[in-house]
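Re: folding output
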Amino acid sequence: MKIYRSGSTADHGETHVELSSPIFSWNKSESCLVVKKPGVKDFTGKSRHNYKVLIDINDLNKIMSLLAETALESPGPMEKYLEPSLKSILQLKAVVSGVKT
């Protein structure tokens, strides 16, 4: 996972940090996906930071909608990319359709 940034007023190009092997978890109380990565080197210096990104359920729905639209437009590549997630996708389908409660 990469996080890019650029200046909002003076754009001097993009810089990024890479969050290799982030830790994913679900926060039940806030209904959000949590992505954590400790000890990430700063964009510009030698300091390190702990990153924590919260993705709420509304944003997750938008991500899933975008993935579905993209899969319909370009099924070949998306089939390959999402094949490892097929079991999870089917489990979500069963829950959302009311088959599994």
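--- second protein (sequence, then structure) ---
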Amino acid sequence: MQGKQFPHNFAVIHHKVRKIMAVLSSTVSFLSILLSILVCLHHVESDKSCKQIMADMTKRQLSGITKCIKGMKFKNGKEKAAKMNCIMKCAMENEGLVSKTGDISREQIDEILIREFPSSLLERANATFQPCVEKYAGTMDANPETDPLCATYDPVIKCLISALPNLCPPA
């Protein structure tokens, strides 16, 4: 039964993603959605496929991104587009991917991976995302006065996004 529900659920998620992408700027929203796939997953059942896990993560993270957007109370769309990295910073902080001080560590990533991914994907997920942690740990400035557009978060976001295609093994 679940196998028959997945295509429908994916189509619904895809439709919602397209609607959100229309609201956000195209390049930044693409990065946001892809990052949302990475960040968190709760209560994974071990019998789910990697693509099912990613679809679940996307749905959950879109909700988290929307919550951050609403909480940040932007004056207009231009401000929201300019602060897209801050929206992603908010989502990453809420999921525990980065700390409120802008730190990202192997321990934080390991905790999320162990909690959220089935053991069958754990090694692959770690190998996929660890290079980004190693490269960008200590580079993010969480101070809104010195980094008002959260630009220091952009490289780690892009790194994580570009690593995503390697997460699910080829079918």
